[in-house]
Design a protein that fits this description.
299 residues; mainly beta; OB fold (Dihydrolipoamide Acetyltransferase, E2P); 5-stranded mixed β-sheet; globular; binds zinc ion
Length: 299
């Protein structure tokens, strides 16, 4: 089983039995497995269900069986938590109000799509308008099949997001439930992300992929030409895996000849390109570099 709890919430003095969950979320410190210290014992909690966690083993990087250290739920507190057991059917809600509350609390995100075109400046003073700050726009109300009762749908507000918005506060987004366009269930982001290295063939259903940049160069002479960004890839059937987007669009996101080693997230479909695979025709809001501090959550 892979380790589903990427970080714990550390808050001294808080208790699961008596504490307010929103206080925990607002005030706690996020602790990665290698940031755990002994004095935190008994004061670390689950980022989804808020139950007590413990680190196993407590003060070594590996258990005697070779497994790396991980966070686990303490026995004794029973919670229905997607980080305890992966929910095959996604997260369900009893009522529409409960689902709306989950959206307000940012536990649930209904994604209508990702922003394709760079938003244009609402005023003429372009210098003061920074399109890169736009992370989401309101989408239409959607009928979403996430009721506890079979076949039940709720009318819920949706968003048009950007992958950049997903990359910001990526550690928190990993535990959020995303209902994606054409999706069937609300799935935790960590279960939606696909590693490019594990791709074995074309895939015409759009997904969120991530990959590590091996090289990047502009295949032409102008910023309108395609920048060929090669991603780390292991396949016996295909030669390589490229992200193919115009140079100017990639540069705006920080992807240039020097982006080697960085991780990129892309929402798109996988097609063949010569003897290899690629993702192309990606819109402005459909890809972004992952901030370096979050790379350890994926690798
Ligand atoms: Zn939990």
């Amino acid at each position: 089983m892979d380790n589903r709890i990427k970080h714990a919430l550390y808050l001294s003095g808080w208790s699961y039995a008596a504490g307010d969950k929103s206080t925990l979320r607002k005030s706690a410190e996020k602790i990665l497995i290698n940031e755990y210290q002994r004095h935190m014992k008994g004061q670390i909690f689950c980022p989804e269900c808020s139950a007590n966690l413990f680190r196993s083993p407590e003060d070594k990087d590996y258990a005697s069986n070779g497994r790396s250290a991980y966070f686990a739920h303490s026995r004794g507190v029973e919670t229905d938590c997607g980080l305890r057991t992966k929910r095959a059917e996604g997260k369900k809600y009893l009522t529409e109000e409960e689902a709306k509350k989950a959206i307000q609390d940012e536990e649930l995100v209904i994604v209508e799509g990702f922003i394709k075109q760079k938003p244009v400046s609402p005023t003429k003073e372009k210098s003061e308008y920074d399109a890169t700050q736009i992370e989401e726009q309101d989408g239409p109300v959607s009928r979403v099949p996430i009721g506890r009762h079979r076949g039940e749908t709720f009318s819920l507000p949706s968003k048009f997001k950007t992958i950049r918005g997903v990359c910001n506060k990526f550690d928190e987004n990993m535990n959020r439930y995303f209902f994606m366009p054409n999706g069937k269930h609300a799935i935790q982001l960590q279960d939606l992300l696909k590693n490019v290295e594990n791709v074995t063939d074309e895939d015409d259903l759009p997904k969120i992929y991530y990959g590590r940049i091996v090289s990047s160069h502009n295949a032409g002479k102008t910023p309108k030409n395609i920048r060929m960004t090669r991603l780390s890839f292991k396949s016996r059937d295909f030669a390589d895996f490229y992200l193919k987007i115009p140079d100017e669009l990639q540069r705006e996101k920080g992807i240039d000849d020097n982006a080697i080693g960085r991780v990129v997230l892309i929402y798109g479909i996988v097609t063949t390109s010569g003897a290899g695979l690629c993702i192309e025709d990606v819109g402005w809001g459909e890809f972004a570099l992952l901030p370096i501090q979050y790379e350890s959550l994926l690798y």
